[in-house]
Amino acid sequence: MRLLVLGARETGLLAAARARGTFVIAVDRDASAPGFRLAHRRAILPLDDEPALERLVEAGHVEGVLGTDSPTTAVAARIASRFGLRHPLSPESGVLVGSPLRRRTRLAEAGIPQTRWAVLHGYSAAAFPCVVGPVDRKGRRLAEEAAGGAEVTVTAFSRAGTFEPLLGSGAPVELARRAAQALGIRDGATSTRVRLGPDGPRVASLQAHVGAREAELCRLLLGVDLHGLVLDAALGLSRSAEDVRFGSADAQVA
Predict the structure, then answer these.
(1) Please, how many CA atoms are within 13 Å of residue 127, restricted to the half-sphere of its CB?
(2) What is the pTM assigned to this prediction?
(3) What is the phi/psi pair of residue 80, to 5°?
(4) pLDDT at 133
Protein backbone atom coordinates (compact mmCIF):
# COMPACT_ATOMS: atom_id res chain seq x y z
CA MET A 1 0.00 0.00 0.00
CA ARG A 2 1.10 3.58 -0.62
CA LEU A 3 1.00 6.26 2.06
CA LEU A 4 1.67 10.00 1.99
CA VAL A 5 3.17 11.14 5.31
CA LEU A 6 3.08 14.86 6.13
CA GLY A 7 6.17 15.56 8.21
CA ALA A 8 9.49 13.71 8.19
CA ARG A 9 10.79 14.44 11.67
CA GLU A 10 9.18 11.51 13.47
CA THR A 11 11.36 8.58 12.47
CA GLY A 12 9.57 5.92 14.53
CA LEU A 13 6.37 6.09 12.51
CA LEU A 14 8.21 6.11 9.18
CA ALA A 15 10.38 3.18 10.24
CA ALA A 16 7.26 1.23 11.25
CA ALA A 17 5.63 1.94 7.89
CA ARG A 18 8.69 0.80 5.98
CA ALA A 19 9.03 -2.36 8.09
CA ARG A 20 5.44 -3.27 7.22
CA GLY A 21 6.16 -3.01 3.50
CA THR A 22 4.21 0.23 3.02
CA PHE A 23 5.48 2.46 0.21
CA VAL A 24 6.10 5.81 1.91
CA ILE A 25 6.13 9.23 0.28
CA ALA A 26 7.34 11.68 2.93
CA VAL A 27 6.88 15.45 2.79
CA ASP A 28 8.68 18.13 4.78
CA ARG A 29 9.90 21.66 4.16
CA ASP A 30 13.25 20.76 5.77
CA ALA A 31 15.51 18.91 3.35
CA SER A 32 17.52 17.55 6.30
CA ALA A 33 14.52 16.03 8.12
CA PRO A 34 15.75 12.68 9.53
CA GLY A 35 12.72 10.73 8.36
CA PHE A 36 13.56 11.27 4.71
CA ARG A 37 16.13 8.49 4.86
CA LEU A 38 13.33 6.04 5.68
CA ALA A 39 11.02 7.08 2.84
CA HIS A 40 10.86 5.56 -0.63
CA ARG A 41 10.20 9.00 -2.10
CA ARG A 42 10.57 12.46 -0.61
CA ALA A 43 9.08 15.83 -1.43
CA ILE A 44 10.44 19.10 -0.05
CA LEU A 45 7.35 21.25 0.29
CA PRO A 46 5.61 23.50 2.82
CA LEU A 47 3.24 21.29 4.79
CA ASP A 48 0.38 23.76 4.37
CA ASP A 49 0.61 23.92 0.56
CA GLU A 50 -2.52 21.86 -0.02
CA PRO A 51 -2.68 22.24 -3.83
CA ALA A 52 0.88 20.87 -4.12
CA LEU A 53 0.09 18.06 -1.68
CA GLU A 54 -3.00 17.16 -3.69
CA ARG A 55 -0.86 16.86 -6.80
CA LEU A 56 1.36 14.44 -4.87
CA VAL A 57 -1.68 12.35 -3.95
CA GLU A 58 -2.66 12.12 -7.62
CA ALA A 59 0.83 11.44 -8.94
CA GLY A 60 1.71 8.99 -6.18
CA HIS A 61 -1.55 7.00 -6.38
CA VAL A 62 -1.59 6.90 -2.58
CA GLU A 63 -4.19 5.04 -0.54
CA GLY A 64 -3.84 7.08 2.61
CA VAL A 65 -2.63 10.44 3.97
CA LEU A 66 -1.18 10.75 7.46
CA GLY A 67 -0.26 13.83 9.49
CA THR A 68 2.42 13.69 12.17
CA ASP A 69 1.40 16.71 14.28
CA SER A 70 -1.77 18.72 14.93
CA PRO A 71 -1.62 21.09 11.91
CA THR A 72 -0.72 18.34 9.43
CA THR A 73 -3.37 16.02 10.87
CA ALA A 74 -5.96 18.64 9.93
CA VAL A 75 -4.48 18.95 6.42
CA ALA A 76 -4.44 15.16 5.99
CA ALA A 77 -8.11 14.88 6.98
CA ARG A 78 -9.12 17.51 4.41
CA ILE A 79 -7.07 16.02 1.58
CA ALA A 80 -8.30 12.50 2.29
CA SER A 81 -11.90 13.72 2.18
CA ARG A 82 -11.39 15.49 -1.15
CA PHE A 83 -9.99 12.33 -2.74
CA GLY A 84 -12.42 9.91 -1.12
CA LEU A 85 -9.66 8.23 0.87
CA ARG A 86 -10.42 6.64 4.21
CA HIS A 87 -9.14 8.62 7.17
CA PRO A 88 -9.81 8.31 10.91
CA LEU A 89 -10.84 11.96 11.23
CA SER A 90 -13.52 13.92 9.43
CA PRO A 91 -12.42 17.30 8.04
CA GLU A 92 -14.50 18.96 10.76
CA SER A 93 -12.73 17.09 13.55
CA GLY A 94 -9.42 17.74 11.83
CA VAL A 95 -10.04 21.48 12.00
CA LEU A 96 -10.77 21.23 15.73
CA VAL A 97 -7.67 19.24 16.63
CA GLY A 98 -5.52 21.35 14.31
CA SER A 99 -6.47 24.65 15.98
CA PRO A 100 -5.83 25.04 19.73
CA LEU A 101 -8.34 27.90 19.94
CA ARG A 102 -11.11 26.02 18.14
CA ARG A 103 -10.39 22.92 20.20
CA ARG A 104 -10.58 24.91 23.43
CA THR A 105 -13.80 26.59 22.34
CA ARG A 106 -15.51 23.33 21.40
CA LEU A 107 -14.50 21.65 24.66
CA ALA A 108 -15.84 24.64 26.60
CA GLU A 109 -19.14 24.44 24.71
CA ALA A 110 -19.36 20.76 25.65
CA GLY A 111 -18.74 21.51 29.33
CA ILE A 112 -15.40 19.67 29.45
CA PRO A 113 -13.24 20.83 32.38
CA GLN A 114 -10.04 22.42 31.06
CA THR A 115 -6.96 24.18 32.37
CA ARG A 116 -7.21 27.96 32.18
CA TRP A 117 -7.05 29.71 28.83
CA ALA A 118 -7.87 33.10 27.37
CA VAL A 119 -7.99 34.87 24.02
CA LEU A 120 -5.76 37.94 23.99
CA HIS A 121 -6.13 40.98 21.75
CA GLY A 122 -3.51 43.60 21.05
CA TYR A 123 -1.17 44.06 24.00
CA SER A 124 -3.48 42.53 26.61
CA ALA A 125 -2.09 39.95 29.02
CA ALA A 126 -3.57 36.95 30.79
CA ALA A 127 -4.15 37.02 34.54
CA PHE A 128 -2.43 33.67 35.10
CA PRO A 129 0.95 32.07 34.30
CA CYS A 130 0.68 31.04 30.68
CA VAL A 131 2.21 30.19 27.36
CA VAL A 132 1.06 32.53 24.59
CA GLY A 133 0.68 31.32 21.01
CA PRO A 134 1.31 33.25 17.80
CA VAL A 135 -0.99 35.95 16.45
CA ASP A 136 -3.66 34.57 14.11
CA ARG A 137 -5.21 36.23 11.06
CA LYS A 138 -7.71 38.06 13.27
CA GLY A 139 -5.03 39.49 15.52
CA ARG A 140 -5.77 37.12 18.38
CA ARG A 141 -3.38 35.15 20.56
CA LEU A 142 -4.28 32.12 22.64
CA ALA A 143 -2.94 32.07 26.19
CA GLU A 144 -2.88 28.63 27.81
CA GLU A 145 -2.08 27.92 31.44
CA ALA A 146 1.57 27.00 31.90
CA ALA A 147 2.47 23.48 32.93
CA GLY A 148 2.58 22.85 36.63
CA GLY A 149 1.48 20.29 39.17
CA ALA A 150 0.69 16.66 38.58
CA GLU A 151 -0.26 15.57 35.06
CA VAL A 152 -0.98 12.29 33.32
CA THR A 153 -1.28 11.47 29.64
CA VAL A 154 -4.09 9.23 28.43
CA THR A 155 -3.17 7.42 25.23
CA ALA A 156 -6.13 5.80 23.53
CA PHE A 157 -7.35 4.37 20.26
CA SER A 158 -10.96 4.70 19.08
CA ARG A 159 -12.75 2.35 16.69
CA ALA A 160 -16.27 3.17 15.40
CA GLY A 161 -16.89 5.42 18.40
CA THR A 162 -15.55 3.01 21.04
CA PHE A 163 -12.80 4.66 23.08
CA GLU A 164 -10.14 2.13 24.09
CA PRO A 165 -7.60 3.47 26.63
CA LEU A 166 -4.11 2.04 26.26
CA LEU A 167 -2.24 4.14 28.82
CA GLY A 168 -4.06 5.75 31.74
CA SER A 169 -6.77 4.84 34.21
CA GLY A 170 -9.56 6.19 36.38
CA ALA A 171 -11.08 9.66 36.11
CA PRO A 172 -8.52 10.98 33.58
CA VAL A 173 -9.55 8.26 31.13
CA GLU A 174 -13.22 9.18 31.42
CA LEU A 175 -12.40 12.84 30.89
CA ALA A 176 -10.26 12.00 27.85
CA ARG A 177 -13.14 9.92 26.44
CA ARG A 178 -15.57 12.81 26.86
CA ALA A 179 -13.13 15.23 25.25
CA ALA A 180 -12.58 13.00 22.22
CA GLN A 181 -16.33 12.59 21.85
CA ALA A 182 -16.86 16.37 22.05
CA LEU A 183 -14.39 16.85 19.19
CA GLY A 184 -16.16 14.25 17.06
CA ILE A 185 -13.26 11.77 17.16
CA ARG A 186 -14.70 8.32 16.52
CA ASP A 187 -11.63 6.62 15.09
CA GLY A 188 -7.87 6.75 15.47
CA ALA A 189 -5.33 7.57 18.14
CA THR A 190 -5.59 10.35 20.70
CA SER A 191 -3.16 11.64 23.29
CA THR A 192 -4.82 13.69 26.05
CA ARG A 193 -2.76 15.49 28.67
CA VAL A 194 -4.76 15.80 31.89
CA ARG A 195 -3.89 18.12 34.80
CA LEU A 196 -4.75 16.78 38.25
CA GLY A 197 -5.82 19.10 41.05
CA PRO A 198 -8.17 19.67 43.98
CA ASP A 199 -11.04 20.47 41.59
CA GLY A 200 -10.59 17.19 39.73
CA PRO A 201 -8.95 16.38 36.38
CA ARG A 202 -8.85 19.00 33.65
CA VAL A 203 -7.87 18.71 29.99
CA ALA A 204 -4.62 20.53 29.26
CA SER A 205 -4.32 19.40 25.63
CA LEU A 206 -5.64 16.80 23.21
CA GLN A 207 -3.88 15.64 20.06
CA ALA A 208 -5.01 13.22 17.37
CA HIS A 209 -1.49 11.91 16.85
CA VAL A 210 1.00 10.13 19.09
CA GLY A 211 4.68 10.63 19.74
CA ALA A 212 7.64 8.31 19.99
CA ARG A 213 7.48 8.20 23.80
CA GLU A 214 3.88 6.96 23.84
CA ALA A 215 4.59 4.37 21.17
CA GLU A 216 7.58 3.11 23.17
CA LEU A 217 5.54 2.90 26.39
CA CYS A 218 2.84 0.91 24.61
CA ARG A 219 5.50 -1.46 23.32
CA LEU A 220 7.19 -1.91 26.68
CA LEU A 221 4.14 -2.03 28.95
CA LEU A 222 1.54 -3.65 26.71
CA GLY A 223 3.40 -5.23 23.80
CA VAL A 224 1.13 -3.19 21.51
CA ASP A 225 2.34 -1.70 18.22
CA LEU A 226 0.80 1.77 18.50
CA HIS A 227 2.48 2.91 15.30
CA GLY A 228 0.87 -0.07 13.60
CA LEU A 229 -2.58 1.03 14.78
CA VAL A 230 -1.96 4.56 13.50
CA LEU A 231 -0.83 3.26 10.11
CA ASP A 232 -3.84 0.95 9.88
CA ALA A 233 -6.20 3.83 10.53
CA ALA A 234 -4.56 6.00 7.86
CA LEU A 235 -4.93 3.21 5.29
CA GLY A 236 -8.53 2.36 6.15
CA LEU A 237 -7.75 -0.91 7.92
CA SER A 238 -9.70 -1.79 11.06
CA ARG A 239 -7.83 -3.74 13.70
CA SER A 240 -7.75 -3.60 17.49
CA ALA A 241 -4.79 -3.34 19.84
CA GLU A 242 -4.97 -7.11 20.33
CA ASP A 243 -4.41 -7.59 16.59
CA VAL A 244 -1.16 -5.63 16.50
CA ARG A 245 0.79 -7.01 19.42
CA PHE A 246 4.49 -7.41 18.76
CA GLY A 247 5.35 -10.95 17.78
CA SER A 248 1.91 -11.75 16.36
CA ALA A 249 1.48 -12.70 12.71
CA ASP A 250 -1.15 -9.99 12.22
CA ALA A 251 1.25 -7.27 13.37
CA GLN A 252 3.34 -7.87 10.25
CA VAL A 253 0.51 -7.28 7.77
CA ALA A 254 1.52 -4.71 5.15
Answers:
(1) 0
(2) 0.90
(3) -60, -40
(4) 95
